[in-house]
Amino acid sequence: MSGNAMQLQPGRGVGAFTLGSSLHEVLTTIDADADTFPTFEFYHDDARPLDSPVHVKLPDNGIRLQFDGPDQRLRLIEVLDFTKAKLLYKDSEVFRMADGANRLFAGLAGPSFRHIYDKVLGLTYDGEYVPPRPNGASATGTYNLSYPGVAVNFPVQHSAYSPQKDVISLLSSSATGPATSMAVFSGESWQEARGTLFTAPPPFPRSSLLVGKSREGCPDEIELARIHGEGKVELVRRNSPPFWLLLGETTPQDLIMELGPPDSIFRKSDNRLSIHRKDRRESDVSEGSGIGSTPDDTVFSEQGSAFGADDDDWDDTDGEGQAQGREIAAVEHFYNYYHHGFDILISQPSQLSSAFSGPGSDAVPAHHHGPLSAIPLNHLAATKIILHGNVPGSYQFNRHRRSRWALEHAHAGFNQSPLTSEMHMDEMRPRLKKAFQAFYENDEQAKQLQRGMALNRGWDDSPSSSTEFLGDWEDGSVIRDKPADSAASTGAEENPGNTTLFGFPGLVFEVLKNGAVSHLTVY
């Protein structure tokens, strides 16, 4: 066999693919090894991207990978073409084309029952026979021979099948053809596992770095982000105790200690929502001078060079405050954790939003907030976290692995379950409005501040950055100038870069046209 042979590991995986791996890791692995995986096909349901399984097919390797929708974990590995899937089980080849075999019909070839039974997998219990469809043209049924973590399908002439026949006599007879497919899964048998195939907790982590000896020194993976309000985010880990991210207090050193070093660091540079801030200069409006810049709007490249308004544009009386603002902006940056599924903004702490704490907030760690002027400029902390949904079909798909979250403080009732990352925005908005109704002065203000704002990611100057986390919504002053269903959104279905932003106290949701939340910003 060639050097591209893949090890078959029942109940665990095939080659580089391990059950439980994240969709992000699998696609990254495929993309990084074009020689082994020259092509792949990606299938998902546009209307229900988080409710339906995701399929990745490798036609040149004879393999199909199936992932669950909500968590995007690898649940099933199928071998569909044994002539292309070069598999080894321990020291035995699962299938080898006979010398001189007609490759025009190679797709019909597969290992025989005798080879599987005698040379590869060995003894097992009787399997399950699936008869042909009553109205189908085929007179051939399928016999599923199952082992722990792996199952093999054999075609059987329906006329030859009898429940009284033992499996060896049936499958070794001329009425049974070579295997047509193989499945690798987690479970004692296919019959037991298939009912919970996409819902049972995967036995292996999302990242291959956490498997075996390689996990030593690697930070534990994050299972869920629980948002408790008032800047408190509980990051639930797979094996370790939860890590409490306290916005405005948790330092970069804390992040590196608990989450590991970031995969990259990006300078904050997006100022497209500055027009909606209350701190714009009055002269920009009263004098009709167009859109003015504020110190917070200064744009920085990754090297930290500034591109903003000239110093002459500002009053000398405010020079000290403006200089401080530029200095603050100069040190703001994102910690990008692609493998965890989120980014964290590092900046000078300021007064956090007066987000509704909700019931149960007394049970979480105390969090003290101080005014901006009381905190030295050299004191940096995590001030925002952006949780990525990695929704199939979105503009930024597969830059991060999927991060799941639950809003513990926005129940809008003690008997209701938390809002989660799998829910559609149309389902969440009524409950969010009810949960945060006390935050607004009146119904008109609530209606104004909760309208959707259109966003087009395709126009971003730096689409690989974290600049999707737009603006300063902390003061609740963002004005939505167009409703989500306005004419400005025409044609968005053809452009995956078109999304809508919805803001609530301490939260900004970025929503796709199908209602799925692609990003959640917590501040």
From TrEMBL:
One cellular component term from this protein's GO annotations in UniProt: trans-Golgi network
InterPro entries in alphabetical order: PHAF1, PHAF1/BROMI
A Gene Ontology BP annotation from the UniProt entry: Golgi to plasma membrane protein transport
Region feature (Disordered): 277-322, 458-497
Skewed-composition ranges (Acidic residues): 309-319
Cited Pfam families: PHAF1
Protein origin, superkingdom: Eukaryota
Family the UniProt entry places it in: Belongs to the PHAF1 family.
PANTHER family registered for this protein in UniProt: PHAGOSOME ASSEMBLY FACTOR 1 (PTHR13465:SF2), UPF0183 PROTEIN (PTHR13465)
Protein name: Uncharacterized protein
Organism: Sporormia fimetaria CBS 119925
